[in-house]
Amino acid sequence: MCGIFGVVSNTSINKQKFQTLVKHSEQRGVDSSGLIYYQNNQYKVNRADYSIEKLLNKVKPYNNNIVLGHSRLITNGLGDNQPVIRGNICAIHNGIIVNEDEVWSKLSVSRQLKIDSEAIVAIAEEFLTNSENKIEDLPKEVLSLCQGVIACALALPEKGKLLLFSNNGSLYVGYNEDKTYFASESYGLKIIGCENITQIKEESLILDIPVSKENLTVIDEKSRVEDLIPEFKFNTIEENLLEYKKLDIKRCTKCILPETMPFIKFDEAGVCNYCKSYKPRNNPKPKEELFKLVEPYRRKGKELDCIVPFSGGRDSCYGLHLIVKELEMKPVTYTYDWGMVTDLGRRNISRMCADLGVENIIVAADISLKRKNIRMNLEAWLKSPHLGMMAMLTAGDKHFFRHVEDIKKQTGINLNLWGVNPLEVTHFKTGFLDIEPDFEEKRVYSHGAMKQLRYHSKRFRAMMESPGYFNSSLWDTLSGEYYRSFTEKQDYYHIFDYWRWDEEQVDNTLLNDYNWEKAIDTTTTWRIGDGTAAFYNYVYYTVAGFTEHDTFRSNQIREGQITRERALELVGIENTPRYQNIRWYLDTLGLDFERVIKIVNKIPKLYTEK
């Protein structure tokens, strides 16, 4: 996934406007970059494993009349970079092809690279060998074979053509003076003064560029030491370090919460206070109310009318399905990638947006920096393990809430519709900080100044036990939590306040209608796109004997969705350690699997083994 951009002109490009366009494209990722430009009657390519701004400062392609490029969020390794080249065909692609193996099985040419985007160039290579094929039909050929988001600029120097095409609308074209600009988002074109900005979605755009029979010259620069997506290698010895015992501990006789749950109390019948205080959450209001609420936001024609915060998890995916198919809105999705979104999550984002024809705006953090922050906090935690401090490992994703406001300003769209599961309430995470549960809280995320001040004071005391928490990540943590819990939210609604959340229906829709991808190391569809969940749930189960799955299934019992017996059966499977995901998590942080797991295993248990 990346931000792609470019300018085609009969004269030299405007340096200032091009730099502005590039700067906005960096919002989508800065892990690697690439440029294509026409110089001295030849097309040249520069690729680097660092930011596009740094590459621009080095190449300085401003005296040329054609410059195309990308600023990339790494999704499948650093070994290959864009622009992708085969022969004299060159492409920059925003998106993920989710059926690349199937595509290659249909082609006669052989695969040369690991990057999924090579399939687009290979299709073009094979297509153009047939002299009867028309260039204007090439985009349709690509889109008919490839599944997932395809927003592409495909350069054919020998034909003197540049093809711009997209299947989800994450590509725009605009005009300024005598120049044609394109970018992944309309906002980048607006801020440089483009006019007649249009979305490329149903019809491709073909631009004339200078013909060149010369071979492309390519310069690759690699300076990064770390691998943002380390290769997974299965290690049986490591996997055997993960402990998992079926525990015989006291549980509520109505739900399945155990005696180790913070602040839990049982009555004479063995029913817990969580059950007795529970108020149904999955009891939606009439759908007609939401139709009335969104009516003022609807826009005529093809103009987009709502923003959908989109993690790629099952609930936001199903929520997007409802918004498009049932509510009949025209959304743009927004994803915040903070370095712990797994490739599985990204592929499901690509599936849903492609199938529904929905634009996806990505805001990518500095992944190296974010992972450094997590690593520092995890190292501090390992020196003084405290269950109440596990939330420090996910603090970096809270900027998700801040960037929603940025996207509203950039798109001019106020309405945002959220697909938050009403049953994902985990009182125990703050309970382990000695904060009593607020059974009246209606949202997954708590709000209010007093609640937050109490939370931060409790957490500060825990941080004092391991001074390593007082590191350079602290501002990132605090500012993210501020935007989540203190800023006033406007023009937003929760889709599951009006549609009943039903797990069976959700899973059936995603798996059957959208070929949604499941994880290979768990049976559940929940949390599989989150790189942190497997690790923190392993810690919770090892030390406290339960995980998020126990609280979630308990809420389903209270809502009458499943029986207690079925819940116990499910958590017995779902609490099994996810070796692949845990290994990925620790590898991305640069931490030794054996060292970390052995520390976790030695933490004193909150239960007595029988």
TrEMBL record:
<dbReference type="GO" id="GO:0004360">
    <property type="term" value="F:glutamine-fructose-6-phosphate transaminase (isomerizing) activity"/>
</dbReference>
<keyword id="KW-0808">Transferase</keyword>
<dbReference type="Pfam" id="PF13522">
    <property type="entry name" value="GATase_6"/>
</dbReference>
<dbReference type="GO" id="GO:0006047">
    <property type="term" value="P:UDP-N-acetylglucosamine metabolic process"/>
</dbReference>
<feature type="domain" description="Glutamine amidotransferase type-2">
    <location>
        <begin position="2"/>
        <end position="211"/>
    </location>
</feature>
<dbReference type="InterPro" id="IPR029055">
    <property type="entry name" value="Ntn_hydrolases_N"/>
</dbReference>
<keyword id="KW-0315">Glutamine amidotransferase</keyword>
<dbReference type="InterPro" id="IPR014729">
    <property type="entry name" value="Rossmann-like_a/b/a_fold"/>
</dbReference>
<protein>
    <recommendedName>
        <fullName>Glutamine--fructose-6-phosphate aminotransferase [isomerizing]</fullName>
        <ecNumber>2.6.1.16</ecNumber>
    </recommendedName>
</protein>
<dbReference type="GO" id="GO:0006002">
    <property type="term" value="P:fructose 6-phosphate metabolic process"/>
</dbReference>
<dbReference type="GO" id="GO:0006487">
    <property type="term" value="P:protein N-linked glycosylation"/>
</dbReference>
<dbReference type="InterPro" id="IPR017932">
    <property type="entry name" value="GATase_2_dom"/>
</dbReference>
<keyword id="KW-0032">Aminotransferase</keyword>
